Amino acid sequence: MKTAVASRQARPSRTDKNGRLSHAGKKIWRSRYLYLLLLPTFVWYIVFMYAPLYGAQIAFRDFMPALGITGGKWVGFKYFIQFFKSEYFVRLMKNTLGISVYSIVVGFPIPVILALLMNEVRSKYFKKGVQTIVYMPHFISAVVVVSLINAMLSPSNGLFNQIIQMFGGDPVHFMAEPKYFKTVYVLSDIWQTAGYGSIVYLAALTSIDPSLYEAATVDGASKWKKLLHITLPCILPTIMTMLILRMGSIFTVGYEKIMLMYNPATYETADVISTYVYRRAFEGGEYSFSAAVGLFNSVINFIVIIVFNKISKRVSEVSLW
Fold first, then answer.
1. Interior/surface letters 7-23, b for 16+ CB within 10 angstroms, e for the rest
2. From residue 123, how far is each of 98, 128, 129, 203, 256 by CA, in Å?
3. Which residue spans traverse the membrane (predicted)?
4. CATH assignment of 87-316?
5. Domain boundaries in the chain?
6. Most buried among 48, 138, 156, 258, by the most CB within 10 A?
7. What value does the mean pLDDT of the chain take?
C-alpha cells in the first residue's frame, strides 16, 4: 500500500503538467505583442537563412539547372578535393585571411577609439555634428566609394600623386600595384564603416553609472585612470562580443567592393574566396564547384567562431553562449 502511494507521489500528476503548460501559455499570452514583433525576423531567418540550406547539397552533386537540385548525380567530396588541389587554393586562403586580419588589427580598434573620443566632447551641437559627419560614409554605396578611391589615387591628377610630385617623387599607380591593394582596401573600409561602428560603443558608454566617475574624481583619479579602470572595463563585454562576431567572419571578405577595385594585375593579392566563387559560378557556370567552396568557407567560419568564443569565455568570461 505504501509502495503504491509513493509511486503515485513520485509521478507528476496530469494536473501539475497541465498547470505548468497553462502557466507557460499565460506568460506567452501576456507577451504576445513582443512575440508578434519578433515574428517577421523569425520568418525572415527561416526563409532566407535556413530554407536555402536545402540547396547546399549541390556541392555534393553534379548540378544541372534543368534537372533541379536533387537531379544531379551524387559525387561526394569531389569538388572539395578539386578545390584543395587547385593552384589557387593557397593564394585565396592567404589573401582572404590577410585582408581579414589586416582589417581586424588596424580597423577594429578605430570605432572604439572614436566612441571614446566623442564621449569626451561636452558641446552637444559639436558632438552631433561630428557624429553626423563620421556616420555619413556608411550610407555611400560601394560603387561611389570605389569611384572616389580611383579619383583620389589617379596617377595623372589624383590628390595623393599630386602631393607626391610636389615633393619631387614620381606618380604611383596605386590601383595597379598588387602591394598597395590591401592597404587601400582596408583604409577605405575603415573610413566608410568606423563612424557607424562606433554607435554600439557609444550606447555601451551611456550605460556606465556616473557615480563611478564621481567617486573616482573624489579620490583624485585623472582622466587616464578613469579610462583604464572604469570606462574600458565597463565596455569590455561589448568589445569582446563584437570581436567574437568579427572573428566569425574572418574568412568572409565582401566581393562587391573588391570586384570593383581589382583587375588582373592585382589578382595576386586581391583575389579572395568570395570573388573566386563569383567568377566560377556566374562566369564559368560551375555551380557545384562554387557551392562546395562557399560551403567550405562557411564551415571554417563556424569553427573559428566556436573556438574564439571558448577562448574569450576562458580569458575574459565574456561569450555569446
1. eeeeeeeeeeeeeeeee
2. 40, 9, 10, 18, 39
3. 33-51, 96-118, 133-153, 230-255, 287-308
4. 1.10.3720.10
5. 87-316
6. 258
7. 86
